[in-house]
Specification:
- The protein contains twelve helices and two strands.
- It is mostly helical.
- The chain has a single domain, classed as Orthogonal Bundle (ABC transporter involved in vitamin B12 uptake, BtuC).
- The chain has a two-stranded antiparallel sheet with strand order 1-2.
- A hairpin with a 2-residue loop joins strand 1 and strand 2.
Length: 321
């Protein structure tokens, strides 16, 4: 029986092939991290897992490609710029509505109530996006390079490299924002205790609008990157499920953890798909299924939940009685 690597027509243990698979996995991990960043932002400000973040990626991408069609008569650069600005305005408006209609009535309520509210937001956004822009797959081409660069004998997609650079800039900017600005410190205070933050004059409603707007910006960038790669389709919302193992590995409150967790998941699932499967099929069981990429991340996350539930960068919670 031929292994998966042999079917590709390459030496499965070639150093260049290993390097190519590793780089491809790291680039995919950066894309996962873009989605995970939105989860981290909301969790840091409200201590609630925002189930709607994956749908926000879809909703932002749908609006962006829709407004590209609206401005299709303009030059390409102006078309992309206007579509980005208008879509960002839509995401800020969404943040205002979410704060006023959903979050404000639930201040100091149980976290499960906020979590259930985010599920409702996700269902609404998915249906509303389909109502406005339709459910067909929409190609997205804004000039992101799609050529191939060779490093030795290893092949690297320029689009993946571009996404990695954008994500790196975004991560560094957000990390500096949270640690060295007044708003960033206020966000951390709100995450620790809503009532205490209110008592010292931190406007909770303003903070939530800001953080949901920033999460909307992250969702828009992620939506553009994923939409350019896969097309804008409703399966983009399933990205939320792949971001969950990323958060478990990196820690729910850590921006650097989101990027590191994404890199581990991306590289791990690609290497496991090729080399682990090849080793198992060769030395253990030849009938072992080749498709483990879809569930490998969840098995890895399960191991972290058992041995380090706070993640690599999360804070260990110590309760004293």
């Amino acid at each position: 029986m031929e292994t998966f690597a042999n079917l590709l027509g390459v030496d499965p243990f070639s150093i260049w092939f290993f390097f190519e698979v590793l780089i491809g996995g790291l680039m995919a991990g950066v894309m996962y991290s873009l989605v995970a960043l939105g989860f981290v932002l909301i969790f840091k400000a409200s201590s609630v897992f925002n189930f709607a973040q994956g749908v926000m990626v879809l909703f932002a991408a749908l609006n962006f490609v829709g407004f590209l069609e609206v401005f299709s008569d303009l030059p390409v650069v102006l078309q992309v710029a206007l579509a980005f600005i208008v879509t960002m305005a839509v995401m800020i408006l969404l943040a205002l509505v979410v704060e006023r209609v959903v979050l404000r009535p639930l201040v100091n309520q149980a976290h499960i109530s906020l979590f259930m509210a985010t599920i409702g937001i996700a269902i609404f956004l998915e249906g509303f996006g389909e109502l406005i822009w339709g459910s067909n797959i929409k190609p997205l081409d804004i000039g992101i390079p799609d050529d191939v660069t060779f490093v030795g004998d290893a092949m690297i997609q320029d689009s993946d490299l571009f996404a990695a650079i954008v994500a790196s800039i975004l991560v560094v900017t957000l990390a500096l924002f949270f640690h060295y600005t007044r708003i960033g410190r206020a966000l951390r205070a709100v995450a620790d205790d809503h009532q205490a933050a209110l008592s010292i004059g931190i406007p909770l409603n303003h903070i939530w609008i800001i953080v949901w707007s920033v999460a909307g910006f992250v969702a828009l960038v992620a939506g553009i990157m994923w939409g350019s790669k896969l097309g804008v389709q409703f399966s983009l919302s399933i990205l939320a499920l792949k971001a969950l193992p990323v958060l478990i590995l990196g820690g729910f409150t850590s921006i650097p953890g989101a990027i590191v967790g994404g890199l581990i998941i991306g590289a791990g699932e690609k290497l496991a798909e090729i080399f682990l499967v090849d080793a198992i099929q060769t030395y253990i069981y030849s009938g072992f299924p080749a498709a483990i990429e879809e569930w490998f991340a969840y098995i890895l996350a399960l191991g972290f939940l058992v041995f380090r539930p706070q993640g690599l960068f999360g804070e260990k919670i110590i309760e004293r009685v």
